[in-house]
Hints:
This protein is an alpha+beta fold. Helices cover 35% and strands 10% of the residues. It has 7 helices and 5 strands; from the N terminus they run αββααβββαααα. α2 (58-67) packs antiparallel against α3 (72-82) and α4 (127-143) packs across α6. It binds flavin-adenine dinucleotide. One of its GO terms (molecular function) is flavin adenine dinucleotide binding.
Amino acid sequence: MPKTSLNALDEIYQYFMHRSGPLSGLHLVNFIGYINTKNDSIFPDLQVFHTQMDSNDLYVVEAMTRSINLPDELIKTYLEDNKHNSNVFITSQVMKPKSKGKILLRSTDPFDKPRIFPNYFSDEKNEDLELLLEGIKLSKKLVQTEILTRYKAKVVKFTLPNCKDYDFDTDEFWRCAIRNIGSHLFHQVGTCKMGPEGDPTAVVDPRLRVHGLKGVRVIDGSIMPTITSGNTNAPIIMIGEKGAELIKEDWLGNVRDEL
Ligand SMILES: Cc1cc2nc3c(=O)[nH]c(=O)nc-3n(C[C@H](O)[C@H](O)[C@H](O)COP(=O)(O)OP(=O)(O)OC[C@H]3O[C@@H](n4cnc5c(N)ncnc54)[C@H](O)[C@@H]3O)c2cc1C
């Protein structure tokens, strides 16, 4: 029977009674890999998510593929394949993107929505795109490992409306696929960059005070001069903690001065 939101109750029961089942893990990101594709440093340049879906798990497959806005044609292929097979959905992420976006004011009205230009894959040497292609090649190697050949693993063949000119599984096909269905992980940062006063692109100083204004600080992900490697939530919590310390230090310093 296909999984639906209704028999999610079974999963809740399984978790509360036996502490097992899909709800006992992180599910979508149960295991994450960090790889240096060039093997030239201890620092990874690629993060890889592996999302495992049981056979006939139509509810999760559909919810996940729709949440990342995949084209209907591709979702249909996944749903069809998942009726008969368990799937592992592998996605690679560039740890230090070379492409940079920009955010501009739409007007002088502060309540107007800003204009956001992500500019993905706009770096001159195409390094971001080529790194993701490398990620796909590495992921495909998993299929040839002894353990997965035992389970007769294979790459699910699919087509995309904008990539029909390319044969499936060629580099050109994957480049087209990355450009068409590549997405992001909501890790936008750096719109109020921290930097020295002379830097025209810097908004806040190293104590997170806005240059040229008194009594205004910015303490969030926007102050990152460059993005951290991997997910942003933990480093931004750290920025929050550090910002609170800076405020305390300055305030206590001021109070002492006044005494
Ligand atoms: C769907 C989603 C999934 C994510 N998953 C992960 C994950 O799995 N792991 C991970 O590490 N990161 C994840 N992230 C990224 C992470 O959550 C963010 O990078 C982080 O929360 C950003 O923190 P922040 O404090 O910079 O900004 P925010 O959390 O966006 O906080 C900004 C705050 O400022 C407030 N604000 C905005 N304008 C004004 C104004 N004019 N005046 C006063 N207040 C204002 C907003 O209401 C908001 O509360 C995810 C993000 C999203 C959206």
